[in-house]
Amino acid sequence: MIVSFFLDKVHLEKKTLPTAPVKIETQNNLKINNITEQALAPIAKEKALKFDFSFVVKYEPNIAEAKLDGGIIFLTDEKKMKEIAE
Are 15 and 65 within 8 A, CB to CB? Predict the structure, then answer.
C-alpha cells in the first residue's frame, strides 16, 4: 500500500516549437535511485520502504522535457519488504 508520495524537484523545459506540422513522439524513463527502510513516525515501531525515483519525459523532435525527482513510501509486511529490498 502506498502511504505517501512526494516530489523533491520538478524541472520543465520548452526547447523549440516546430515550424511545420510534425509528428510529436514521447520517450519516458523511470529510474529507481534508492530503496531504504523508513519509520512511519518518529516513535513508531512499524517501518515502510522508501523508493527514491527520477522520471523523465522527452517530447521529440527536441520540443520539450520534463524531469521529476521524488519518492514513494510503501507499506507492506516484513517478509515482502526483505524480498523487495534484495
Answer: yes
The secondary element (H helix, E strand) that includes residue 79 is helix 78-85
CA 86 – CA 2 distance, rounded (Å): 19
Q: Which residues are within 8 A (CB) of 59 and not within 5 positions of it... i.e. 6 or more apart?
A: 24, 25, 26, 65
Q: Residues 57, 59, 62, 67: what is their CA dihedral angle, to the nearest 10 degrees?
A: -20
* Residue 38 contacts residue 45 (beta carbons within 8 Å): no
C-alpha count within 13 angstroms, C-beta hemisphere, residue 47: 12
pLDDT at 77: 85
Query: Looking up cell 507499506, which residue turns up?
Result: 75
Vertex 59 angle, CA 56 and 63, to 5°: 125
Return the minimum-mean-pLDDT range out of 3-12, 38-47, 62-71: 38-47
Q: Contact, 4 vs 70, CB < 8 A?
A: no
